[in-house]
Amino acid sequence: MRLVPPTQDNPYAAPQAELLHSPEVRGRVWRDGKLLRLEKGAQLPQRCVRCNAPAEVHIDRKLCWHSPWWALLIFAGVLTYAIVALIVRKRADVRIRPCDEHARARRRTLLGLGALALFGVVACIWAPVGLRGTGVLLGAVLPLVAFFVGQRRSSVLQPVRIDKEEAVLKGASEEYLASLERRAA
Ligand SMILES: [Zn+2]
Q1: Separation of 8 CA from ligand 1 center, angstroms?
Q2: Which of 45, 131, 144, 151 is packed most tightly, with the most Cβ within 10 A?
Q3: To the nearest 10°, the Cα dihedral for 134, 139, 141, 146?
Q4: How far does residue 133's CA lie from ligand 1's centre (Å)?
Q5: What distance in angstroms lies between residue 137's CA and the mean position of ligand 1's atoms?
Q6: Beta strand extents in the chain (DSSP E only)
Q7: pLDDT tens, 53-103?
């Protein structure tokens, strides 16, 4: 195993060999500019994708993506778009590893979004007579906003493209990306 020492620019950088050849790393994982690319089924290094600190916990997520062009179908109706999006979407199972601090921040965000959705429902049901319209609007909009923002935040990494072979993700920190190969061997 070839050990690559920490760079002079960043003496705290983890040795690359530790990351690339750890028994936890399976399949090809590499950086492409500010993006993280991995083969379908590849395991990410045991480092937090947000700060590159050691990560003990993991979150298994099914990331979904479809070409943004399909969104034009929304003009044909939200239901039409939703059905087609379900059919054409590509999926990738990704095990995301946040450090304790970023796992806690993720939980706090999701709890906050849950409270926001609940507030919308409560406002819709118990709005005073003069504010019924506002209550219904909040009840319709807040749970939807909480759902879509929660989908993004719970995954930590967002898909930019997923195809048959690989997933291209954004959201990884520069420190984390710097510890990866620049391209697949
Ligand atoms: Zn972290």
Answers
A1: 23
A2: 45
A3: 140
A4: 42
A5: 37
A6: 29-32, 35-39, 59-65, 90-96, 158-162, 166-170
A7: 999 888 998 999 999 899 899 888 889 999 999 999 999 999 998 999 999
pTM for this prediction: 0.71
Distance 118 CA to ligand 1 centre (A): 29
Task: Report the candidate in 121, 148, 149 with the shortest Cα–Cα distance to residue 137.
Answer: 121
Q: For the chain, percent helix, then strand, then coil, each to nearest 5? A: 45, 20, 35
CA of 154 to the centre of ligand 1 (A): 14
What is the Å distance from ligand 1's center to 65 Cα?
Answer: 25
Instruction: Name the residue among 65, 58, 151, 63 with its Cα closest to residue 96.
Output: 58
Spacing, Cα 95 to ligand 1 middle (Å): 15
